[in-house]
Amino acid sequence: MAPSQLLSLTGVSKEFPGVKALNNVHFDLHQGEVHALVGENGAGKSTLMKILSGIYKKDSGEIIYQGNPVNVSSPNEAQKLGISIIHQELNLMPHLTVAQNIFIGREDRRRGRVFLNDAKLNKAATQLLSELDLNLNPKELVGELTIARQQMVEIAKAVSYRGSVIIMDEPTSSLTPAETESLFKIIRSLKANGKGVIYISHRLGELSQISDRITVIRDGEYVKTVNTPETTISEIISLMVGREVDQDQRPEAHRLSDEVILKVEGISDQNLLQDVSFDLRKGEILGFAGLMGAGRTELARALIGAEPKTAGKIYLRGKEIKIKNPSDAVSAGIGYLSEDRKRYGLLLIQNITFNVILSSIPNFSSKFGFLKTKSAGAIVRDVITKLRIRTPSELQFVKNLSGGNQQKVVIAKWLTRNCDILIFDEPTRGIDVGAKDEIYKLLTKLSEDGKSIIMISSELPEILRMSDRIAVMCEGKLTGIIENKDADQNIIMEYATKFRD
Amino acid sequence: MSEILSAAEGSSDSGSKIAAFVRREIGRVLALGSLVVIFAFFTIMRPVFASWANVSGGILMSTTVIGLLAIGITFVIITGGIDLSIGTSTAVVAVIVGKTVMDFHLNMWNGIILGIFIGGVLGCINGVLITALKLPPFIATLATMKASQGLALIISDMKPVLFTSDVKGWDSIAQGNIIPNIPNAVLILFIGAIIAAIILNKTVIGRYAFAIGSNSAATKLSGVKVERWLIVIYGICGLYVGMAAVVLTSRLGSAQPDLGLGYELEAIAAVIIGGTSLLGGKGTISGTIIGALIMSVLINGLRILELQQEWQYVVVGVVIVIAVWGDNVRRRRSGEAS
């Protein structure tokens, strides 16, 4: 008996200003099937699912659901059709109970009656939870549950819509192996009941246990769909990264000092990081690769004191230093360029000068606190020339600069502060191809001048092009540090998905 | 599998259920305790403080207008919003009711219904500004607060509207005694509190207020028409403004256009002292009433002790700091979701 087709997406495309997120993507789902969707960060998986669940509108393409073409115009529409989604970021109300969260918007209200029946709600929730074999108290406040149990509430909520299609976006990201097994039991029973499950996960090892088919998306394009039993994890990884790496684009051989400028030992934090240790050599570019959620930004923030750490020591030029807040890090000469430069790196409504001197104000003010704007102007003009920031003057408002030039302003800020160690988090995010090249040249020059750089990036070609050594993180742990000459995209992905010791 | 889940989490047996209950309610228990302690303190200092005349005619009576406003704004604060216009809107409603009742020779009941209705309309206007124009509640209600201030003066021609002697029974709305020895205004406050508590805890309006305050994006994604419910909630706040205006005019014997400014902050103070968080998602009506009573008891007690009026305000400010800081400390200790 051929499995009947529940869902079919064909030719789906979606564009955002400047970025083609999806280009002519296909996907289909059978009844009683678990179909996994995989791809690197930014490949388009979440976009595709948001279109399917009514959060985004597709630009083109067709969605056929249970044999009929449909237009999923809103989350409500999706729910009515029977498509429910468990988001990666939990969508729960912490001040309400488990039962209230599951049935929000669907409280039993007979016409004209405005009164709630919590007893009934709790009973329905208890029934649902026991059906799914979840040990949750319907009257517990969701805010008091651990993330793992909150995820269970989301799962119960999605199942409670009794729809035919359930989308799960990274459902196991916070679950232990035991809890993951519980989830798999639920998924298997959904399969047995003829539902279709779309399963997005970076934990490729899980896919062989739970999925029937796997579809790979890369850079917004459809790559391939395979039957799970007929494929291997290495094959999947190859399909996921598949880009040609220009072998020429590797760091030029230059004499690297052996001097260890920063030594990090045993960094752990409350949530994710576990015992991360590494050294940074003077004049080196140490790339940090890994998937989203691997803990690289968390590591950077712990290093500069923006988040508390529960364990770990930091040694600068051989001497231990205590970093309890970003001010300590800056005093030690460590500058951090965050992922979200508009939010954490710049004061958009201020001008370039203000931003560039922001970390060095004591050097630009007199004893009584007055700002020495004249001398500041000269210094800022100098650094604008050195970094080739394209702007009519140093008084231009930063919000009017392009992404690449904004990034250069952040770099200028740390150079003005004479930071010897720079942590770049996604240095070319949101920057167009031409400007990216300039940033790369700038980074190379900085390292040649003796600055030591930690470069966090999700773009593997960028990591391979710029790093002298590459550190890879996975789920809060450092899984390996390799020399650039020993690395390629596949090896990095393997470390990033935890398949080598 | 369920055993593993339960072992991993710590069981949900009756012991920790009680602990959770106490943890959740302790904010209110502490507030009530503080009220009792403060009351006892003043009674010891001046026994006349606890006399029925002072309690009912002094303390409770002076709580009625602010208390009604505080009840209404509790709904709004639970959604994570604010309504700065409740003070001056009280004056607008009072003045409109006064003029209309006089010009159209309406009777007491018509006047009461008119007052509540106008209040509700003003509240809905706030709701519409916030949802349709997407103005932050602070800005939207600041605007309506100022507009109301002007409107009240315009409509009343900058003079108190003396209408209560024209309407039979208006004085008795607040000052009569349906129940012997208890002024009607106090009864109205009491009934208003009970109705509000029922709405908040037993109806969808209340449920959605908590949901929106807790995570309005998630509530919206769950299919709830958040905008529509916000207009309803600001409307409810307005209904209580209307009732407060009726009670105020009954107590004063007139509609004063320049009253009301400042009431909003007293109402907000009552709500905060009572344990409702300005961030939204949690709150209780009983907490608000206790907060309002704490302020009235303090002011009344300090007056009986003959402390200068200026110092009474300072004391209230200090109480707010202690109440909110204490609540923060308690919450951080118990690791509650803030």
Task: Describe the fold and architecture.
- The complex is a heterodimer of chains A (501) and B (338).
- Chain A is an alpha/beta fold and 501 residues long.
- Chain A has helices at 45-52, 75-81, 98-102, 118-131, 147-160, 177-192, 204-210, 233-241, 296-303, 326-331, 341-345, 352-357, 373-387, 403-416, 433-448, 460-466, 489-496; strands spanning 5-16, 19-30, 34-38, 60-65, 68-70, 83-86, 165-169, 196-200, 213-218, 221-227, 260-268, 276-281, 285-289, 311-316, 319-321, 334-337, 421-425, 452-456, 469-474, 477-483.
- In chain A, strand 7 (165-169), helix 6 and strand 8 (196-200) form a beta-alpha-beta unit.
- Chain B is mainly alpha-helical and 338 residues long.
- Chain B has a single domain, classed as ABC transporter involved in vitamin B12 uptake, BtuC.
- In chain B, 76% of the residues lie in helices and 0% in strands.
- Chain B contains 13 helices and no strands.
- Chain B has helices at residues 2-9, 14-45, 52-78, 86-103, 108-132, 137-156, 170-175, 184-202, 204-221, 226-252, 263-273, 285-304, 309-333.
- In chain B, helix 4 (86-103) crosses helix 5 and helix 4 (86-103) packs parallel to helix 6.
- At the A-B interface, helix 2 and helix 6 of A face helix 1 and helix 9 of B.
